Structures are given as C-alpha cells and as structure tokens.
Amino acid sequence: MDSGVLRSHVDDGRVYRTPAARRSPRRLSRVVAAVAAGTALLGAGIVACGSNEPKVAIPEGIPPGTGSPTPPIDINAPGRSADQLADWAAGLSDDIGIGTTALEAYGYAAAVMAETLPSCGIGWTTLAGIGSVESRHGTYDGSSVDAFGQVAPTIRGIPLDGGPGVAEIPDTDGGAMDGDPVHDRAMGPMQFIPETWLKWGVDANGDGRVDPDNIDDAALTAARYLCARGGDLTAAAGWQQALMAYNLSGDYLALVRDRASAYSVGVRPD
C-alpha cells in the first residue's frame, strides 16, 4: 500500500487497490504493449546504484527475473523454516533495500511453491515486488517486522465503504481480524481482506496460527493465491493473469514488475 488515494476493485473477495503513485511507472506504455502481445520485451532500463558504481541494466517485460536463487532448504524444518535463508537474505538485503526477515519470507514462500507446485515457477522477486507496493515490506507508516515475521503496529487499509474510487464491502468478520465491524479493510503486509484470508491463509512459520499480520504467513498465502490464479508464472500470460487477479490494474502490474525486475538484478527500485 503506497501513499496516495487508493482506487479499489473486487474479484472473488480480493480487493484490488491501485496506489496513486508519486510518478508514473517506468515505460508503462511498453509494458502494456508486451502484456497485450503476451510476450516479454527484452530491453534495458538504467538506474544508478551509486555515484562511484556502474549503472545496472534492469530488464523490461514480463515475467520479471527470479533473482538470486535460494539455497536448498528443508521446507518442513521445525520452527520458523525461513530462518534457513538467513545467510542468503543477509547477502542481498542492503543492496536491494529489503529487511532480512521479509526477504527470508519471500524466499521461503517461493521455495515452498517450487517443491509443492513446481509447475507454477513463482519467483521471490514477484512476491517482493508486491510486498513493496502493498506495505513497503511491512514497514508502512512506521510499522516494523520482528525476527519472527510479525508486523507491528498492524497495517490496515482504508474502510471499503463505497466512497470515491473505493469498493463497498460490508463487514465479513465482525471486525475480529480487521478491527472494523462495519466495513472490511485490507490487512497486513500483503493486504488481504478477511474473506480472502479465511479462504487462502496458511501458517508458514510453524507457530500454529494463520495470521495476516505475519509476513511469513502473508507471503506464502500470496504465493498460493498467485499460483492458483495464474498457473505457469514463468510465462508472460500466466504472470499477467496472476497479477491482474491480485489487483485488476495495468498500473499496478507495471509498478510491481518494475520493482521485481530491479530486485532480480540485485538493485533497489527507482
């Protein structure tokens, strides 16, 4: 969830919110053309990594690259299984601007899907792109992520009350999860509404709870949802379908793509 007015759409209980970004996504028209054609563009956007460092070419088109591969792990290890990715995450965190715990969560979710549903092919970079847009990796508005993946203070979206540019979704959980007994609100670092969370939510950190405010649980839930919606996310058409299911907006797709592509080559997004 970026700052700015949120424009909402709904499909199967998922709220699709398009952030009013401070600037237009990079080369949006070319991305849309690639989406329409169902093929990936291969080009080079240029960003500066530092005053004394060479510029790095960021690939265009969809799907974005899958980035630095995660090492083999036991996805069923006791406790917080994502901790096995601590060294991998530490080696990337500073360069791409994602906290290590959030990065471990994205990497673990991708590893779980690679083992349990290899036909999907979702990369951790896609999850990181979504996490960046939705909540700045769990740090929106002063929130932070602890070593167990818990986000506090909790992140809640605006009331979905049918106001200008906002879908109207009456309360579905009695306010038990989102704190609003009148209208639903999107929850947590990946911004699910209660109805969708109840259908797709999963415990990813082994604490026995299915918690939208835990970035491990939220990242794996998002991965499951995207794979179910898009099928083969290594194909342009599948990745597009998954992202448009998550948020029905070409602007949103381009923004996630831009950020995921930057992560894929080891740099921070513009």
Written overview of the protein:
- It is built from eight helices and six strands, in the order ββαββαααββαααα.
- Strands 1-2 form a two-stranded antiparallel sheet. It has a two-stranded antiparallel ribbon with strand order 3-4.
- The chain is mainly α.
Low-confidence stretches: 1-51
Give me the Rg, rounded.
17 Å
Order of helices and strands: EEHEEHHHEEHHHH
Residues in helix, %: 25-40%
Structural class, from helix and strand content? Answer: mainly alpha
Shape: globular
Number of separate strands? 6
Summarize the model shown.
This is Lytic murein transglycosylase. The protein is mainly α and 270 residues long. It has one domain.
List the helices and strands and how they pair.
Elements: E1 6-11, E2 14-19, H1 28-37, E3 45-47, E4 56-58, H2 86-96, H3 100-116, H4 124-135, E5 144-145, E6 151-152, H5 194-200, H6 215-230, H7 236-246, H8 250-264
Antiparallel strand pairs: 1-2, 3-4, 5-6
Helix pairs in contact: 2-3, 3-4, 3-6, 4-8, 6-7
Organism: Rhodococcus erythropolis (Arthrobacter picolinophilus)
Domain Transglycosylase SLT: 186-230
GO molecular function: peptidoglycan lytic transglycosylase activity
